[in-house]
Write a structure and sequence with these properties.
This protein is mainly β. Helix content is 9%, strand content 36%.
């Protein structure tokens, strides 16, 4: 079976970078932490990650090369606790989301063990450009 790429479509010009972003994001998609994506209006979205046990200082949110990257790393509390059962994950994570052109990251809010990140889609004005044909 042949893998189809955006380059396989002759009418899709200049999308090579988008294809690389999609491949990179697909490789980093593990199951932790779980998340939701909801549409909150016609032009806004909210990503919610379940980050129980993480504080605001354990988390970082960046936008890198049209990707929203959320990282979590818990500091060592230094105690010598002995767990009889450890079911609450405390490992580091990285979640990446590819952002379309015009999507801006708004505020982030921690609430009851959930991290909410709001996104807004800025719709550009439609522009029609007429190209003059020169006589050769």
């Amino acid at each position: 079976m042949t893998k189809l790429t955006l380059g396989s479509y002759p009418h899709m010009l200049g999308f090579e970078q988008l294809e690389r972003l999609l491949e990179r994001t697909a490789k980093s998609s593990e199951g932790y932490p779980p998340f939701n994506i909801e549409q909150t209006s016609d032009d806004s979205y909210r990503i919610t990650l379940a980050v129980a046990g993480f504080s605001e200082s354990d988390l970082s949110i960046t936008v890198e090369d049209r990707q929203l990257v959320i990282r979590g790393r818990q500091g060592d509390d230094g105690s010598e606790r002995i767990f009889l059962h450890r079911g609450i994950a405390s490992r580091q994570f990285q979640r990446s989301f590819v952002l379309a052109d015009g999507v801006e990251v708004g505020e982030a809010l921690m609430e009851n063990g959930l991290l909410h990140v709001d996104l807004t889609l800025i719709r550009p004005q439609a522009v029609v450009q007429t190209i003059q044909i020169k006589k050769g």
